[in-house]
User: What shape does this take?
Amino acid sequence: MKCLTCGNRVTLHMKNCEGCGEPIGKTEVAATIDSASPEDAKASSGTSTSDFVEMGKKFTRTYGQFFMENLKFPSSKAGRADHQDVKYGALNVLLLSLFVGLGIYFQLKHFHVGFSMFGMDVSFKTFFSMFLYMILVSFGSTAVLFGILKVLMHVDVRFSTLFARFGSFLTIPAAISALYLVASLSGLSGVASFLGLFLITGLQIVSFATLYSFRQQIQTRFDPFYGLILYYLVFYFALFLIQDRLPGAFVGMLL
Assistant: This one.
């Protein structure tokens, strides 16, 4: 808002204009608000939108750098990730889940279009269920690793730091999942199946690498090897409990 006398900027809580000293009445304030041009309103709105766009561009640039550094030096870069990288790790989880879900959906579509496969119809629910499943697997895996590190190894670690490190190690599997999606879209079933197996291997390595990255912080004599065995016991037991819910999806990745 502006003073009607001198044009100096004023605010609602001011009693007098700082420029000319004239009192600011309610009628003047109302008149100033009413006289605001549409161009001024657009400019104000444009500024906030521009700031939002700039924030998005900055995040995209920093995530791109994060992704490329983890591709080049996964053991050293991802192995030092902390809670400040949690947003990038979470994005890796989302991208991996998205690509795997879509890849399985299109691979099953190409393999058996319009039919039921192993008791499950190939519909878009396949994508949605696998998308959610991969997210739950990521959080569940982090939770199991967190329990092993905190309870059995007495490692002083925050869950956000562990999740950031787990998500950072997912950079290479996320890249593989993108290739898996491309192969599934192209109808290259053999290539997609190979990439699917490669992806499963990569996910297993991620769990090992995440646990091993905390080896220097272990405060007990509990060997990390047994921690890894315990992790897979819990993981496959949980998988056994829910295997009947997603049979076609798993078979689709192994075809």
